[in-house]
Amino acid sequence: MKINDVEADVRGWVSDQLMKSATEEMWYAITPMLAPIQGQPVASFMILYWCRNPILGDPHISTGSLITGVPAEAEVRKLTRDSLAKLKDQKADILRAPINFSGPPANGRFGARG
After folding, report:
1. What CATH architecture is 3-96?
2. Integer Cα distance of 8 and 13 in angstroms
3. Domains of the chain, residue spans
4. Is pTM, for the whole model, over 0.85?
């Protein structure tokens, strides 16, 4: 099986799982690569997931997974669900954190003092 065929399968599984599980707009990227495992190159896939930060103007939040070898559909779907849960937890942590209204330190913007 060619790596492009496996990538197409993984992309389809991730996309389908996001359509089923995501409650907001999410993005993903899949990068096929050869990862050295015990000195031998093994086909692997890095899957990155990201969404908007709940704090306007802050960078997106993201998480990722590395899959080595030819993955099973159930493994990809579970990794996608787990990654969505991580992103939701990150967003909740961001919203619980105290907000610093003084702005960036001493750069003269956004109400900074200095």
Report:
1. 2-Layer Sandwich (3.30)
2. 9
3. 3-96
4. no
